[in-house]
Amino acid sequence: MREKEIKKIREAGLEPVAVDRKKLKKTAFYIVIFCFISAVVVLWNYSIAASKQNNSDRPAYHGNVFFNLKLIRQDGKIAGFEEFEGKVWIIQPHSVTQPETCQLGTEAIQRLSKKYKDVAFVSLVVDPGPGEEALKKLKEAAEKHAATVPQWYFATTDPVVLHKYLKDKCRLGTLPHFHEGKWLYDSSLILIDRDMKLRRAVIPQQKGGRPYVTGFDFQQAAEWDAKGIKTGTENTNLEEMQLLIEKTIDRLLADGLKKS
Question: What is the DSSP secondary-structure string of 107-128?
Fold first, then answer.
């Protein structure tokens, strides 16, 4: 420090501070070590949390059923999705003119409805036809599959509204539409928990990494079987899909209603 500056400091009643470079280096060293240890701890905790998450089979959140869709069901009465709040339930896109396109999903629901008496099912008909014809088709389909209210609805509403609902609200991959003489739509089953949240299955990976999240597409499972794709177990893909949805339902039933 220059002499004039030192003189001014002393005139002000102050004394210049001598810099101890060894202490500064030591302090800097401790700060670096502290930052390094903190970073290691954060990364370690993140690794543990990620590992737990990757090994968890908790059903994945996929959206909410916010909009209450009003429906006419097989007994001619008007119903709404608010009736299912507090229950675990399943939506099935269904075709009455092309029942073969949803047959595997329908058979899965028949098995599930026998096993789970406290789970509700709604087969939403994408091709009901007009007016009285629609109600007639709902009744015939319900009778064919022994579906009775209040456990299993066969229901529909205005097709334009219904098709958009399935695509946008239920997060299906295809907007139901009629093309070249046939209906095209996603027949995957849609699983909904007690809080009206869409849920998908989570399959932890044996070798680590992010878990596999999947819906419940029985038609796709049958196609995998037809192509000879193996599951890694003694079961077919269809059998594994049935076990997967049952396991996911069991998990959701074990969880209580989360809303206050």
Answer: HHHHHHHHH-TTEEEEEEES--
Q: pTM higher than 0.85, yes or no?
A: no
Per-residue tokens: 61: 């959140």
Residue pair 198/192 in contact (Cβ under 8 Å)? The answer is yes
Structure tokens at 87: 């229950």
| Omega prior to 99 cis, within 30 of 0 | no
176 contacts 92 by C-beta, under 8 angstroms: no
Tens digit of pLDDT per residue, the chain (260 long)?
566 665 655 555 555 556 567 776 777 776 777 776 766 655 555 444 444 444 456 788 888 887 788 999 999 999 999 999 999 999 999 999 999 999 999 999 999 999 999 999 999 999 998 888 999 999 999 999 999 999 999 999 999 999 999 999 999 989 999 999 999 999 999 999 999 999 999 888 766 677 888 999 999 999 999 999 998 899 999 999 999 999 999 999 998 766 54
Supply the angle between the helices 218-226 and 237-254 in degrees, to the nearest 10. Answer: 150
Of 153, 149, 150, 97, nearest to 126 by C-alpha is: 97
Determine which helix (DSSP H) or strand (DSSP E) holds 245, and give its type and residue range: helix 237-254
**3-state secondary structure at position 247:** helix
Tell how strand 177-179 and strand 152-156 pair up.
unpaired
Distance from chain centroid for Cα 254? 17
What does the alpha-carbon distance between residue 164 and residue 125 come to, in Å, rounded to a whole number?
Answer: 13
CA–CA distance, 32 with 12 (Å, rounded to integer): 37
